[in-house]
Design brief:
single chain, Glutaredoxin, 7 helices, alpha+beta, 7-stranded mixed β-sheet, two-stranded antiparallel sheet
């Protein structure tokens, strides 16, 4: 799977790139520097068109409490216009700080890969069957799962969602554990090990908590 990115993904031992983004759940901005002195779990998502992202953010609201018990803060980044994100989360509140990044500043700074949409990739997507959340009766082609999950959510994509999808898909998502000094200590890149077969997967709570405990030990 060929992938394009402005840089390779940030790796453990590297400084976490700083950023200032508009906060969705409050006025003002959120910056990496705000968390200096405290370990941080940073989850970088795509736009709200992404059904996996919507589910992961909802689940992360519960995981946040367990991470806090380990001494680790949580911050999510969503690649959606601020007003659209605020409207969505007004009706689906998330118990985790979220920043809007429609320009994909963090995605590029942290090196999230984006497979090239050539004929070979499209064929691979159509032939790769996935069911990462386990909610479908059986795995389905990766090209079909988005509409199926949207229907399950009663989620109707807007023109903004369509533009975000066209710009972002099939960019991979990523999560980083950053220590109190701003150094990345743990990384999970979607599809890094399984390729497109890993699309939609998110680290299990057990994996996150184990990495968090190792970070503060």
């Amino acid at each position: 799977m060929n992938a394009t990115s402005r840089r390779t993904p940030v790796q453990p031992g590297e400084p976490a790139p700083d950023f200032n983004l508009a906060a969705i759940d409050q006025d003002g901005e959120l910056a990496l520097a705000d968390y200096r002195g405290r370990p941080l779990f940073l989850a970088i998502f795509l736009g709200l068109w992404c059904p996996f992202c919507r589910r992961n953010i909802a689940n992360l609201s519960m995981t946040r409490d367990e991470l806090l018990a380990c001494g680790v803060e949580t911050l999510a980044v969503v690649a959606t216009e601020l007003n659209i994100a605020r409207l969505y989360f007004k009706y689906r509140p998330a118990r985790v700080p979220i920043a809007a990044d429609p320009a994909l500043i963090t995605h590029r700074a942290y090196g999230l890969p984006q497979p090239q949409l050539d004929e070979g990739t499209m064929q691979l997507l159509a032939s790769t069957r996935i069911n990462p959340t386990g909610e479908l009766p059986e795995p389905v082609p990766a090209t079909q799962i988005g509409s199926l999950l949207d229907n399950a959510d009663h989620f109707k994509r807007t023109d903004v969602d369509a533009k975000d999808l066209d710009k972002q898909w099939p960019m991979m998502r990523a999560q980083f554990l950053v220590d109190r000094d701003g150094i990345v200590r743990w990384v999970n890149i979607e599809g890094a090990e399984e390729g497109l077969a890993g699309a939609g997967k998110f680290p299990a709570d057990e994996e996150l908590l184990a990495a968090a405990r190792a970070l503060i030990d």
